[in-house]
Automatic annotation (TrEMBL):
Biased composition (Basic residues): 1-12
InterPro entries membership: TIR_dom, Tol-interleuk_rcpt_adapt_Tirap, Toll_tir_struct_dom_sf
Record's signal peptide: none
Protein name: TIRAP protein
GO biological process: positive regulation of canonical NF-kappaB signal transduction; positive regulation of chemokine (C-X-C motif) ligand 2 production; positive regulation of tumor necrosis factor production; toll-like receptor 4 signaling pathway
Superkingdom per UniProt: Eukaryota
Biased segments, Low complexity type: 14-52
Lineage per the UniProt record: Eukaryota, Metazoa, Chordata, Craniata, Vertebrata
SMART domains assigned to the protein according to its UniProt record, in alphabetical order: TIR
Length: 214
């Protein structure tokens, strides 16, 4: 009887002890909390939720790395393809991002040396679009500018953007064989692919710049 009375009058744990026991219980079973979190978010087991969504930097922000160069895109092309290139430039400059394009016949300084202008255009642009057509393959200045771009950033993904038009795959410049190209069949679709490639490169550039300053 005495033992039974002591059991009934056993003191309850203090609030501090209750809190400590609760925290220990939670820390000892992380799988239950993570599984319930995964179920509520619709993710399958084994999917990492932390860091799965990468922030998209604002490439138009005033302090972004985009503004470190004068141009977003340099279009390397043959003079015989000028009409098509002007359409591409008009498309890119009319996008919400208002891409800054270097078009040689429009933006080159009168009286300046061709070599100087081509080199400056490469160095002062983030991306280089190589419009590879039969005219491009015959033009020594196009090949010169292509070599300058490859020498400037040989391993920069998305910075050199080859675009093939009316050229067989066997005639694709061997210097660019390690790069995927856009084949221009439908003009509007190809313009969109070029735009998306430039956006991705600028986003990666701004993201890398931001992480480097943190």
């Amino acid at each position: 009887a005495g033992w039974f009375r002591r059991l009934l009058h056993k003191p309850k744990p203090s609030s501090a002890e209750s809190s400590l026991n609760a925290s220990c219980s939670a820390s000892s079973s992380p799988s239950s909390s993570s599984s319930s979190s995964a179920e509520s978010s619709g993710s399958s087991p084994g999917t990492s939720l932390t860091g799965s969504v990468r922030s998209t930097p604002d490439i138009s922000a005033s302090g972004s790395a985009r503004w470190a160069k004068s141009y977003d895109v340099c279009i390397c092309h043959s003079e015989v393809d000028l009409e098509l290139v002007e359409e591409l430039v008009s498309y890119l400059e009319g996008q919400p991002e208002s891409f800054r394009c270097f078009l040689q016949l429009r933006d080159a300084a009168p009286g300046s040396a061709v070599v100087t202008e081509l080199c400056d255009a490469v160095q002062n642009s983030h991306c280089w679009v190589m419009l590879i057509t039969p005219g491009f393959l015959r033009d020594p200045w196009c090949k010169y500018q292509m070599h300058q771009a490859l020498a400037e950033a040989p391993m920069a993904n998305g910075r050199t953007i080859p675009v093939l038009k009316d050229v067989d795959r066997k005639d694709y410049p061997k210097e660019l064989r390690n790069l995927y190209y856009i084949y221009m069949a439908l003009k509007e679709k190809s313009f969109q692919q070029i735009r998306d490639t430039v956006v991705r490169y600028l986003q990666e550039l701004c993201r890398s710049s931001a992480s480097g300053t943190e």
